[in-house]
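User: Structure please.
Assistant: Input sequence and predicted structure:
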Amino acid sequence: MMACNETPPGIFVALNTSLQLPGSNYRDLPTPLRILLAIIMLLMIAVGFLGNAIVCLIVYQKPAMRSAINLLLATLAFSDIMLSLFCMPFTAVTIITVNWNFGAHFCRISGMLYWFFVLEGVAILLIISVDRFLIIVQHQDKLNPHRAKVMIAISWAFSFCVSFPSVVGWTFVEVPSRAPQCVLGYTELPADRAYAVMLLVTIFFVPFSIMLYSYLCILNTVRRNTVRIHNHTENVCLSQVSKLGLVVLPKAHQMNVDMSFKTRAFTTILILFVGFSLCWLPHTVFSLMSVFSRQFYYGPSFYITSTCVLWLSYLKSVFNPVIYCWRIKKFREACLDFLPKTFKLFPKVPGRTKRRVRPSTIYVCSENQSAV
């Protein structure tokens, strides 16, 4: 086993020699399954690169799309592109060959890039979540395109500072003989364990807690506003009916209030949050157990577990553009614009436009029509 940290040899031997087991003491995936996972990962690379590249091109080529939220989504897409290009291909090769053929130095670099791009994506999701919280719960729309660019620059700098220690040997990162990618290895050094905990807390636990609190507050606010608008509308409509002297009401007049406008964008971000949680919770638990549990790290099933967990963490790069295409109409239309005309089988039919309803607006019934 080769270690990729700068711990003095004497200290490393004293603390870790008795813990090293033979490198062959692990179960590998069957060859057909390895090939299948590698093929799926290659498809993930293609979909992740193309889908996220379209997001970036849309924001770059269309000035009308350069809002604060779209700049953040484009940055999230760019981090996923970098993850697809600089990390996933080497993992796919290692899954097939079961050997790391890229050297110890690149092991450090690939581990650093992995945490760097993942942390940047998490930071962008956190910024978006706080922005949605301020808009819907606090009624404060403070994020404009200029501030979004400043936040993006800060997030890149912060992500680099947090992930950089792994490339200079401030933590124990192992050349993959027990995993298809450089991962945090088991160590008893307090500094290594402290950095591993700090890294995982920064990447998952703190963002997850803040985003969960934000979304719970948003859901509660949307629910209360929906009930308030519904009750207010019924009361006002009944008062208007009594003023007109109508005694018999064949069918109660109902306002067609489109509540989807104020919740659809939030729902899209909520789906991204759920995808982030499902893809990254297993990897976070896996990393903690790798650092602190000798029995788990040197167990025969560690390679299989690490392969599945890493594959799941990469799935998030493909997940985001699929959600954009499903949930965002402008993104679907822009994707169609990038297709050659020969691929457009059906003519574009104009759809119905819906009136937008602002979350803080109370809608009342007048005698002739609904008015704001």
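The two ends are 71 Å apart (CA to CA).
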